[in-house]
Amino acid sequence: MKPPNPKSVAGRGGDLGRLLATTGREGGAAVATAITALAGGRQHLRRLLRERYPTVAVTGMTGVGKTALVDRISRHAATTGQADVGSAVLEKRRRTTTSLRGFRFRVVPGENAATRLGALDQVFHDEVVDGVLHVVANGYATGRRVAGISGAASIDREVQLARELEDWTITAHRIASMAVRRARPTWLVIAVTKVDLYPEEIESVVRAYSPGAGTPFAVKLDELRALAGAAKLSVDVLPVCAEGGKHSPISAKQRDAYVAALELRMAQLCGHR
Ligand SMILES: Nc1nc2c(ncn2[C@@H]2O[C@H](COP(=O)(O)OP(=O)(O)OP(=O)(O)O)[C@@H](O)[C@H]2O)c(=O)[nH]1
Ligand SMILES: [Mg+2]
User: Fold this and answer.
1) Domains in the chain: how many in total?
2) Which ligand number lies closest to the CA of residue 63?
3) Which of 158, 177, 229, 240 gets the most CB atoms within 10 Å of its CB?
4) d(Cα 126, Cα 129) in Å, to the nearest integer?
5) Residues with CB under 6 A from ligand 1
6) 155 and 22 in one domain?
7) Range of 15's domain?
8) Cα(6)–Cα(58) distance, rounded to whole angstroms?
9) 28-51 pLDDT, tens per residue?
10) What's 126's domain CATH number?
11) Which of 64, 117, 251, 255 to mutate to test the pocket of ligand 1 (most atoms within 8 A of CB)?
């Protein structure tokens, strides 16, 4: 068979073919090596970024406190107030540290069906995350304000608990399919937030969200663990809150300690320390 004409290689291969044809065989090999090195360098950089700043999906129903918690962890200028409830797009936050070991958070909006589904696809399928922070609030999710009405919408706690469970069912399925698809293990931290609203019950509430507790949430959690396989998915349940201070039963110091403990656990799970 006739060797391919360099001109036609250039025509078909575009810039690379043209370059190889004009630089001759040796020059072409050098260019190819340089390109491979460049691609290898980029891959190395990506791996380094992934190790230093693993991505974390933040899930949970609307008003549960995802944005507030992640803003607190990432020292993002807090945008507090009722206006924040109902994030419409996937929020990105980065927690950086002086030791270059932090996290890249991907906060999935709890409300808004279309953007929520797209965001769930993004974090669990398209750009698979390293771990999941699922946020629950013991039925204390804040209702969205109806346009024109100020103040928090008061919504029955039982209703909110049922919605939390509904939301968890959807997310748990996504986590299970991600865990079975991938080779490396993943982690899930259930953040039981807004503990300042139920300071006397923190322990029992955390227990109710834990594996083997027998509550509807825990039953779904057990199912998820069985489906994914214990070796593939580690589960932690930790209390936390994003608010606290002078007029709260939780002091600012206690709140910071909760946030620090959550951050430390995620760092351990990511192999940071
Ligand atoms: N008391 C108390 N309120 C909190 C805490 N965390 C968040 N909130 C309040 O709960 C409301 C909802 O918090 P967000 O962080 O906006 O909720 P979200 O989960 O991001 O909601 P979506 O964006 O709709 O998915 C806000 O008014 C917060 O100020 C907390 O730890 N304690
Ligand atoms: Mg939000």
Assistant:
1) 2
2) 1
3) 240
4) 9
5) 60, 62-68, 80, 82, 84-87, 109-111, 142, 193-194, 196-197, 241-243
6) no
7) 1-52
8) 52
9) 777 777 777 777 888 887 777 777
10) 3.40.50.300
11) 64
